[in-house]
Each structure stands twice: as C-alpha cells, then as structure tokens.
Amino acid sequence: MDVQHLSAPSRATSGVPRPVARSGVTHANTRLTKRYTVIGNHLAQHRELTLVAIGLAVHIQSLPAGARIGIKCLTARFPESEARIAAALRELEAAGYLERTRERLPSGRIVTHTVSYNQPGVRRAVRVPVPKPEPVRVPAPAPAPEPVRVPEPAPKPKPAPAKLAPPPLPQPLSPDPDRHRAAVDLLAGLRCHDPRLLLAERDVQRLAPGVATWLERGAAPDSVRRALTANLPGDPRHPAALLAHRLGALLPPPLPPTPAVVRPHPFQTCDQCERAFRAPEPGCCRDCGAGAVTVFRPRSAR
Q: Is the whole-model pTM more than 0.85?
C-alpha cells in the first residue's frame, strides 16, 4: 500500500498531558521559586478535619511570624462566621496543628499566644521572649524632709484705670428757641466749611446746647464757627467728640454786666438869686442857702 499524504496539518500538541482516562484530575504544576508554603499531605488530605479547618490551617501556616490570627481578624478576612472560625480552630487544636495558651504580661494584661505546627506530634520548643525580672532594689533611707516653703502670694493685678467720663457740655442759663435753632443751623452747616465735620443729626442735637451757651454769652456765630474749625487734625476720627471738647474747653466767659448810667440832677432855679443849679428838689443854691433861711415861696407869687 502506498503512504497516505494528508493535506490538513495535525493539531498542535498542548503542554498539559492528556489524561489517559476521561475522569479524574490532571495537575498542571509550575515550579515555584518565591511566595509559596510547603504543606504536607497529612494536612491537605486529612480525613477527620473539615474543609474549613484544613483551609484555615493552610492560611495560618502561610502567614509570617507575629501575624494576628484572632477570631475577629479571621472573620474580617474570610466570609465564614465567628462560630465556624472558632469551631475550625478547635479542630486544629484537637488534631495537633495548633496550640493556644494564655499568658499574663508584666503590665497585667492577658494575651493569647498561638503556635502553629506543620507536623502534628512533633512539637519543638518555641522560644517565647520572657521579660527579665527587674532587680530588687533596696530602698534607700528616706532623706530628711525639706522645710515646707510657703509660696508668696501672687501680686494682685493692678486694676485697669477707669475711663474718665467726658465733661458735660455747657448749658444755657435760659432756654431760647431762636438761639437753639441758630445753634443747630451753625452745627449742621460746618460741613460746608470743612467736609471732615459732617455730623449725624443726633450729634447736632446733642451739641446744640453748648453752641447756644456761646451765643448766650455774646459770641457771634462767625466767631463760634472759627473756634470750632480752626487747626483741625489731619483726619479727625470722632468729629463730634472733638467739637464737644472745644465747646467746653474754649467756652468764653460771660460778658460783664452793663454799668448803670448815673444821670445828674435836673436844673433848679434859686428862689433868692434866680441862679440855676442842679438839685433833686427846688430851693436855694449853695451860696444863698449857706447862711440864710430859705423862704419857700410859690412860683405863682414870684
């Protein structure tokens, strides 16, 4: 027979060996060189442990030393409940893969120390750091008590200086509506002479009696205006307070009273010599009346 030549190429061979039988598992293993854990078949194929216990033992043996494997930590890591995790830990303890002991720290706190064995029945001595006992110190004789120093009383803080109230504004002796109105107009019009003296209406009403006092004492409105606006600072922060100070500090004295005019006595005509003289009443002059007896005659008889 001739050799058959097939036109179709043969299928590529897979790296995984084909199973001889149709059932069963086939391993496709890769050689691991890092991040792997050696697990014995006695654990992986244990006939009495549950799958949860076997898987938990594998997980514990893959952890580094010092990792926390409490029930709370394992429950947060896996979907199993606390009851199933606790039952699996008890299975591993009974099978010899796990050993848990309670120890009291020098501080009084109780902690759980867990040892994981990869081979049950072969328990090696695990070195647990034991805190060194502190040396017993013999108490030294107590020193003589130092004299108690009574602390000096702290100096009392000095009270803050009381703020002096501004002096009251001068008030007129007699109320005068016309004078008060003139004082209000004078204060309201100061802004026309100096824009920095723009006053609120309540300040105008408060300062008006002081200006009225100046007007009552004979000061002319222009004189009052010049006294209030002369030599102002560059930027007065409180114009109303500045004007109130000037109204009290620069208040002029009242005018002296007008002296009374002494009028001379009226002229009289002497009854004897017919000479005119000044006297409060008709009679004789000084010359005629010095040595003579004054005879009063009615004017109709003269």
A: no
